[in-house]
């Protein structure tokens, strides 16, 4: 039996000081919506204790289709509007389930 690999994204987002409040306020909703998505195995976004304004991101989805659906939903979300223009520094890999 062939199993699809999980998709794992890790990395960070450096939020400018003038946008920190609005990003912090929107983050719980973004996390809740993502964790409720089909195929989401884990989703964590946490402020880095050593780098001001940095949010570390770690997410895992059951397969490429679930990850792609998340990306599509996220790009049309309030979170995408709030974080527009903030560079993301992500690494996406496939791993065995």
Residue share in helices? 25-40%
Strand content: 25-35%
* Helical run tally: 3
Radius of gyration: 14 Å
Say how many strands there are: 4
Description:
By secondary structure, the protein is an alpha+beta fold. The chain is built from 3 helices and 4 strands; from the N terminus they run E-H-E-E-H-H-E. Strands 2-3-1-4 form a 4-stranded antiparallel β-sheet, with helices on one face. Strand 2 and strand 3 form a beta hairpin. The longest helix is centred in the N-terminal third of the chain and has 16 residues. The model has no long low-confidence stretch (mean pLDDT 96).
Brief characterization of the structure:
With about 100 residues, the chain is an alpha+beta fold. The chain is about 35% helix and about 35% strand.
Main features:
97 residues; four-stranded antiparallel beta sheet; 3 helices; 34% strand; globular
Topology, element by element:
Layout: E1 6-14, H1 20-35, E2 40-47, E3 54-61, H2 64-75, H3 78-82, E4 88-95
Antiparallel strand pairs: 1-3, 1-4, 2-3
